[in-house]
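To whoever is on call:

I kicked off a structure prediction for a single chain this morning and the downstream step that reads the tokens threw a length-mismatch warning. I double-checked the sequence; it's 233 residues and nothing unusual in it as far as I can see. Pasting both halves so you can look.
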Amino acid sequence: MAINTLINWFAGYEAKRKKLLKKVPSGPLHDFLSVPFPALDTPLAELPILAVDFETTGLDSKADKLLSVGFVSLQHAQIKLNSSYHQIIKAKTQLAESNVIIHQITDDQKEQGQPLGIVVEQLLKALAGKVMLVHFARIERQFLQQACLELYGFIPEFPMIDTLVVAKRQLDKRDIAYDPSELRLSNLRSQYQLPPHDGHNALNDAIATAELLLAQMANKANTDKVLLNDIIL
């Protein structure tokens, strides 16, 4: 690992993790922060990854609510379907008709869901020591940080890989104009000849994102030499 990269890493995610760990009382967030993040020179094939997706009532993490969480683990470049998790969250807000149409989650289903604190605790347990994999990182980062602020009073950092950013970097290298719609999850999957998936379900989208990353990496030259530093946000 280059010296500058190593310095940036310890001045960034790892430094912030250790600093926040000293402030956070015992509990789910403390447990999450107690596990070091993977090193930047970790090869992709050895990288512990958790593909995560959220369904929300909107795009504003402060005004809108989490509706559901889905995640699945990747280990040794394989998707571990036995690690799959999907949970609807019991939110106090009443769902708009547009939410029900998009996410197929009704108010009745929401009322049978789990409290936010339980769902976030399960996510943090699964995420400890791993890198979060998402498609369009702003949603998962902001909503998870907001949830941690509401539940624990602190905002942690989360090392992330974003399949949208991986694709954008590859397109930008061509120096040719492209339609931003090419970066949608379904369109990128189609480019890699992956089958259509049932979107707007948190677990389905998490698995679809995991499959996309594996396809993106398989398409790279010298895949065995791809490191976390090459694809991290």
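Update from on-call: the warning came from a stale cache, not from the record. Cleared it. Sanity check on the structure: The two ends are 17 Å apart (CA to CA).
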